[in-house]
Amino acid sequence: MSYTPTLQDAASDFYRSVNCAISSQGFDNENFKIFFKNGLRIFSKNKSKLQEDQKKSIEKCLIKFKDNSLEFEKRCEQLLTAALILK
Fold this sequence. Notes:
By secondary structure, this protein is mainly α. The protein has one domain. It contains 4 helices and no strands. Helix 1 (7-21) runs antiparallel to helix 2, helix 1 (7-21) runs antiparallel to helix 4 (72-86) and helix 3 packs antiparallel against helix 4 (72-86).
């Protein structure tokens, strides 16, 4: 029996990545990178299950998160918002 990750798993990984980023290393934290990459992979595989407006909102949050000109807190906020929409 194999387990197929769901959108809730992606949301959990986004939450975990933010928790890992709250360290002295920030977004360079190795655990952050692992959880974030895994969350993105799961989201990409399952985004067809979302309504179009939810998908667009999450993608918008992820684009804003990747904007390095934003403050650390604002970037974390965008990632947490994406996780909330996924739940």
